Amino acid sequence: MQYVPAVPGPRRVCIVGAGPVGSLAAIYFAQRGWWVDLYEARPDMRRPATTTTATANPAQSQRSINLALSVRGLSALHQTGLGLDAEIMDLAIPMRGRMIHDLAGQQTSQVYSVFGYCINSVDRAGLNIKLLDSVEAFGNVRIHFNHALQTCDLDRREATFMNKSTGEHLTVQADLIVGADGSYSTCRRQLMRRTRMDYTQEYITHGYRELTIPPLENEDGSTDFRMNRNHLHIWPRHTFMMIALPNLDQSFTCTLFMPYEKFEEITTEAELVAFFETFFPDALPLMGRDRLCVDFFTNPRGSLMSVKCHPYHYEDKMVIIGDAAHSMVPFYGQGMNCGFEDVEVLFSILDQHDVVAKTTGDGDCDRDGDLAQALAEYTEVRHRDAVAICDLAMVNYIEMRSLVTSRRYLLRKTIEGYLHRWFPRWVVPLYTMVSFSRTPYHRAILQHDRQTRWLGYGWLAVTVMAVTGLACVMRRCKM
Ligand code: FAD
């Protein structure tokens, strides 16, 4: 067992998990002069995968191949001042609305914003690689791949990792341990042992599987998208749905969300094709039967869960961020955006508290208590927003798979759209607040509830006036 003690000099932060959130946090810490050690359980995703490193390839892991990046994520990238937001936007495909595919294959566009705001489809691996490259450019950062966190002794500020290549154990001491190790976080489990953590975890009864619509190959050898590239395509089927996001190689990654039993009912290729002919008749020829069968029967089936916990920190010794702190179902496209915003919020609080990257190395790195106070404030500020977006994400599944086809829902969206155009500061649709602004998530819900109430009153007033008017006209006619 190797032991790396803390030494006098810059504060040392040990970040667990080099996913998107951990990598971005590493950049923020490095920019403020901390000594950063970033530990990642998987091999370096930038190196070609060997048979033993196959899980390094995100396409083979149980995560989406692409994801929607919106304002909150872009803002946190922008705050680095490294132009990361612009670089990543160069690799993104803007999606200005939902394209609803009905059972007859008819497509209807529902734009996200009357002012033309878009969410952006980005390649998960490409984004992570960009962040890792930026992290590595700092002289005060070291990335340790193939190192999986095993346990922490938080009071001694120690974390023990297993080097997965050699099987050796390594214990490191750091002034602060940051857990960015995703939904099944080991850091969160360690935090639970030291704090009175409230914790809930909920698996939904639906799983997901990724499928592909390949590019269209023209006769002249050129290729094209098979559907409108600037939309997030949805096939809402009430109790289940399929969505598709565009990729730079002109393919679409489709995600089929369905109850587990429904997945299990489909056991043969004939059953699968019949299912698609019934529910996704326009998607079937775009995917091709052979490709569909290969994807459906070989791609892993992912499960979806929501995790809420409180607090996110322990004294000045540990804090958890991203999915490690709040895992949400993917139906608002906010998981990573929220994780990126965690980093921005955390550092705005650390900066306000003047937390500096200095330590005496005497094991008392937080003599003024600045870091402990800042982390406590972070938990309080961020928890209500994380809970709010976890709840919104859950509700949005019903909106996407069912409500988007309801007349009442569409009427409300239309009225809200007009009111937003006329009074952009007073009436703001919920989707706009969540995806195109940095309004704290919990405040977005409060404002939406207020708007719903006022729209209800307005609706009532219009109905009363209409009925009264009609009654007057009828009375006049009788006279
Ligand atoms: P992760 O991406 O899970 O990264 C955690 C890292 O920690 C991993 O690299 C892992 O290998 C490493 N790790 C784990 N355990 C250890 C350990 N013990 N030691 C060391 N390292 C460890 N979000 C959006 O914003 N928009 C979307 O459109 C979107 N779509 C999604 C679609 C699907 C189907 C799913 C499942 C999620 C989607 N999300 C989306 C959510 C998004 O994927 C997550 O919120 C995001 O990946 C969280 O980033 P993270 O860095 O916190 O965690």
Q: Give a quick account of the main beta sheet: strands, pairing sense, barrel closure.
A: 8 strands, mixed
**Small molecules bound in the structure, each named once:** flavin-adenine dinucleotide
> What is the CATH architecture annotation of the largest domain?
3-Layer(bba) Sandwich
CATH superfamily of the largest domain: FAD/NAD(P)-binding domain
Order of strands across the main sheet: 8-7-18-19-20-15-21-24
Low-pLDDT ranges: 52-60
Report the span from N to C terminus.
Answer: 100 Å
Assembly state of the chains shown: single chain
The total of helices stands at 14
Beta-strand segment tally: 25
Taking all Cα atoms into account, the compactness measure Rg is 25 Å
The total domain count is 3
Cofactor: FAD
Family: Belongs to the aromatic-ring hydroxylase family. KMO subfamily.
EC number: 1.14.13.9
Domain FAD-binding: 12-350
Structure description:
It is a single chain. By secondary structure, this protein is of the alpha+beta class. The protein folds into three domains: about 270 residues, FAD/NAD(P)-binding domain (3-Layer(bba) Sandwich); about 100 residues; about 70 residues, no CATH class. Helices cover about 40% and strands about 25% of the residues. The strands form six sheets. The chain has an eight-stranded mixed beta sheet with strand order 8-7-18-19-20-15-21-24. The protein has a six-stranded mixed beta sheet with strand order 10-4-3-14-23-22, sandwiched between helices. A four-stranded mixed beta sheet has the order 1-13-12-11. A hairpin with a 5-residue loop joins strand 16 and strand 17. Helix 1 packs parallel to helix 10 and helix 11 packs across helix 14. The longest helix is centred in the C-terminal third of the chain and has 38 residues. The protein is globular, with a radius of gyration of 25 Å. It starts with a strand and ends with a helix. About 0% of the residues have low confidence. The site of flavin-adenine dinucleotide has 33 residues, from helix 1, strand 5, strand 11 and helix 10. The site of flavin-adenine dinucleotide (FAD) has 33 residues, from helix 1, strand 5, strand 11 and helix 10.
